[in-house]
Specification:
The protein is of the alpha/beta class. The chain has 14 helices and 7 strands.
Length: 309
């Protein structure tokens, strides 16, 4: 899905993005020239750390991917969810797919006006949020990870684009009238491990479940811990979704699952785990006691519908 030829790619790499995440902060060439070597080193190290935590984990070394029940190592459902039968049933799929290339280009573009215009255009199309998340936003996040890994864009471009994408997800989630959800609707609580910096996936899952008519509590701001347990004990939840950012936090995730299983209030709550660590080390999470291990937002909602629907 790369859209740049070699000459364009080299030109883009030599540019310094004029806007950081569209927030009006500008780094001019003169300013960069005035930075000391130490300052530049600190800046690059900081940005690289944030970017690698955000998009680098989107690329597990998976040997096989399942397409409609059949393994095919040549197909990537993260880039092409339309290959999945469940995803093909989503309304306005073709419209969402048509935005992939221009939207990705606008995120990389130093000029923030392009992606801002596309945001407003997307809002006007009335594409369901679930369709946007699965067929547009998730593939773009994966492609940004490809750019990071293959050096099709420099680290600053990917950092800016990833931050913009996260802000867009938040904007789309809250744009327009909020749906009226009956109190009898299915309910899910989303939480993340303490070291999880890659919260884009959590927000995309939240977007999908809300669009499906679920009551969604928690999210990127909810950590695994006392507050989460208080929420679980206060009301019944059909499902608990845990996002794990680092393999080192696998034990914390397992302890949370065991605690939920041991308490009467949450003994029957279905538990699904996902996140960056699960993507990169799926085998390490298979025997933790969760009901499901999801490698994508599409897989999470599909499993949820099967389990709770």
């Amino acid at each position: 899905m790369a859209y740049k030829d070699d000459s364009e790619r080299q030109t883009e790499k030599n540019k310094t993005p004029s806007d950081l995440a569209g927030n009006g902060q500008t780094l001019k060439a003169d300013d960069a020239a005035n930075l000391s070597l130490q300052d530049l080193t600190v800046l690059e190290t900081t940005v690289r750390g944030q970017v690698s935590g955000l998009v680098g984990a989107l690329h597990p070394k998976a040997e096989k991917l399942i397409v409609n029940g059949s393994p095919d190592s040549g197909l990537d459902l993260r880039l092409h969810p339309e290959l999945d039968e469940r995803a093909r049933q989503m309304p306005s799929m073709d419209v969402a797919i048509s935005y992939r290339v221009p939207f990705l280009k606008s995120l990389i573009d130093p000029d923030p006006r392009h992606h801002r215009d596309l945001i407003e255009e997307l809002v006007q199309t009335n594409i369901p949020l679930q369709t946007l998340a699965i067929h547009l936003l998730c593939p773009i996040a994966t492609e940004l990870g490809n750019y990071w890994c293959t050096d099709d864009a420099d680290f600053m471009q990917v950092a800016v684009a990833s931050t913009r994408l996260s802000n867009i997800v938040n904007h789309l989630t809250h744009a327009g009238p909020q749906p009226s959800v009956p109190t009898s609707a299915k309910r899910i609580l989303l939480a993340r491990s303490h070291g999880t910096k890659h919260t884009l996936g959590v927000n995309l899952v939240r977007m999908c479940f809300r669009d499906l008519g679920w009551i969604v509590d928690g999210g990127a701001d909810m950590e695994i811990g006392d507050t989460m347990y208080m929420r679980l004990s206060a009301r019944p939840y059909d499902m608990l979704g845990l996002s794990v950012g680092r393999l080192e936090e696998a034990n914390d995730c397992m302890e949370a699952i065991q605690r939920c299983r041991s308490e009467a209030a949450t003994g029957k709550t279905k538990i699904v785990i996902g996140g960056a660590a699960v993507l990169t080390h799926p085998d390490s999470f298979q025997n933790m006691g969760a009901d499901f291990v999801a490698l994508s937002a599409l897989e999470a909602i599909t499993l949820a519908e099967q389990a709770v629907g």
